[in-house]
Design goal:
The chain is α+β, with helices and mostly antiparallel strands. The chain is built from one helix and twelve strands, in the order αββββββββββββ. The strands form three sheets. Strands 4, 5, 7, 8, 10 and 11 form a six-stranded antiparallel beta sheet that branches. A four-stranded antiparallel beta sheet has the order 1-3-9-6, with no helix packed on it. The termini are far apart.
């Protein structure tokens, strides 16, 4: 009888371990997948200020971000030593184009940033940045990366953004 009791105890223990393991595995998968979600509080689009331009002419690249409620984008018109990552644009090197001036944030608001202990410029709701360029040849190639940082007012969490872009629909005339 002792052996039957011992065998039943072992079988019961194994069955409970399988259930416990299944629950632990399920919990691990659910926890990992919830942390693995990519946070994208800004949806970016871009367009050129003109659809047609002459060689030697200028146009603006316009980047527009729809910013989720309670979030804001840092502009680029404050001291870079302050702490937050300033919005920047990096064009892929190409002899058909060159930048004119710097990236401009449109209507940023001044904010005292307690986390970084300094004055910053931010954009909420709709964030617009403009970069003027000069077209140097008919074979125009404009691409690059738009980078910056977005933070929430709720708990101070911040996320960097890196957006690859390309402008392929601009007609160049001579």
């Amino acid at each position: 009888h002792f052996f039957f009791f011992l065998a039943a105890l072992i079988v019961n223990l194994i069955m409970n371990l399988k259930k416990a393991s299944a629950v632990l595995i399920l919990f691990g998968v659910l926890t990992t997948s919830s942390f693995a979600q990519i946070l994208e509080p800004v949806k970016w689009t871009w367009e050129a200020s003109k659809k047609s331009v002459k060689v030697g002419g200028e146009l603006e690249l316009v980047f527009t971000g729809q910013v989720d409620d309670t979030w804001y984008v840092y502009a680029n018109e404050f001291d870079p030593e302050c702490g937050p990552i300033l919005a920047t644009i990096t064009l892929t090197a190409d002899p058909s184009v060159k930048t004119v001036g710097t990236l401009k944030a449109i209507n940023p608001k001044t904010k005292r940033d307690d986390a970084f202990d300094c004055e910053v410029k931010i954009l909420k709701g709709t964030a617009v940045f403009r970069q003027k360029i000069k077209v140097l040849s008919k074979n125009l190639k404009i691409s690059g990366t738009f980078n910056g940082q977005v933070c929430t007012e709720v708990n101070g969490r911040c996320v960097q953004f890196d957006v690859d872009f390309a402008f392929t629909d601009i007609v160049v005339t001579e």
